[in-house]
Amino acid sequence: MQIPAPFDYVRASDVDNALALLERHGPESRLVAGGHSLLPMMKLRLARPEWLIDINGLAELDFMVREGNVFRIGALTRHTTLLESPEVARLFPIVTDAEQVIADPVVRNRGTIGGSLCQADPAEDLSTVCDVLRAEAVIRGPAGERVVAMDEFHRGPYETAVGQNELMSELRFPIRPRSSSAYEKVERRVGDWAVAAAGAAVSLAADGTIEESSVGLTAVGLDGTVAGIGDLLGGRRPDEDLFAEAGRIAAAACEPVADQRGGIDYKRHLADELTRRVLRRACARASEEQEG
Amino acid sequence: MQISMSVNGNEVTRDIEPRVLLVHFIREELGLTGTHWGCDTSNCGTCVVLMDGQPVKSCTVLAAMADGHEIRTVEGLASNGALDPVQQGFMEEHGLQCGFCTPGMMLTARALLDKNPHPDDGEIRQAISGQICRCTGYATIVRSVQWAANHPVGSAATGDAADPSEAEEVTA
């Protein structure tokens, strides 16, 4: 039987209260939202916080709202809510693609976007999604609010820019014209971590050529986005040869490790193939967007 | 710490350690052993209960987190001696063999049908994709949920047909 080590539990009444509680209880206190990363670690005694500060009641962190050309998603937004949002599916289909394959439907009822990002598991999907969409994380702490770009947010496996006495409050996604995106993952079964996954975001110019593009990979040892893809695709018309070239760059850029989910060659093959697929789909979606 | 919640419509209040998981609270504190405890790692789904109407894996929820919420377990599916159509469907279509995954499967099915009364087979498979059955191969579970969809509460074919002794067999 897996039971966490003893701890004290308190419910935060609002964000300021949560920050005050983190300050009061110090480094041995942890925030908990959906709990589907932290509680399993506590059950295995890999994490032993002395205080759990429950932020599930903070409605102020549970929202989705468009403001001009920015889409704001509260950190406490559940995976299921993201998956079922027609506005998210229209603006950022990569989020919907990814949410369909994150954990399983029951886990998605509890897990949150903020929790996934802050857990920063190397095989976690939404980090790649946020990277390619060039999202920004809003972090609140005793000194107020700061906004950090994704390359600054990620610090490595299980490590982010969010300090011990801070809290991620929201993610901000820029909305670009004639743009779309896609995500695809290969997993052994529902709920397992990715063998490999890829995400792409593209913006097309009025003449149908690619203006901006970005590709990210999950679970194959690549931080941030694949260097060189934007330069390769910029100004070119989307076609299969171009996608194949991008796939080769992605496969060369990643550094997968062999494990029970597959060998290095297989994972590189997936990085290549999945890069082609997500670019193909993102470009097709963006051109539909353009026509519509 | 003291927590209170509604379980199958009954208010319960207990003093617990904060580290008590919801599945153990339900089984050991409340004695409702219809909720099963399986893999302990939020993979198998036999511990699924409804929290405010949504399926959750109760091995990965603290009882403290359920304070103030509404919990529904397999014991709360039947009402006034009549089986829920989902329970009846699992009987009619042989949706179980050993019965270990059944409580979680039935609660997820209930939540699915509340949201989507006429799911297709793909939607049913998707809904139960975080739950593991090692006996049926899932085909009969999908048929059981379809049976329930075709016999909603209030339709002639549910309720009266249920024999109370069979009800116990399904939920035990």
TrEMBL record, chain A:
UniProt xrefs under Gene3D superfamilies: 3.30.465.10, CO dehydrogenase flavoprotein, C-terminal domain, Uridine Diphospho-n-acetylenolpyruvylglucosamine Reductase, domain 2
InterPro entries tied to this protein: CO_DH_flav_C, CO_DH_flav_C_dom_sf, Diverse_Substr_Oxidored, FAD-bd_PCMH, FAD-bd_PCMH-like_sf, FAD-bd_PCMH_sub1, FAD-bd_PCMH_sub2, Mopterin_DH_FAD-bd
Ranges for domain FAD-binding PCMH-type: 2-178
One Pfam family, short name: FAD_binding_5
Record keywords, A-Z: FAD, Flavoprotein, Oxidoreductase
Name of the protein described by the UniProt record: Xanthine dehydrogenase family protein subunit M
Keyword Oxidoreductase belongs to the record: yes
Domain of life assignment: Bacteria
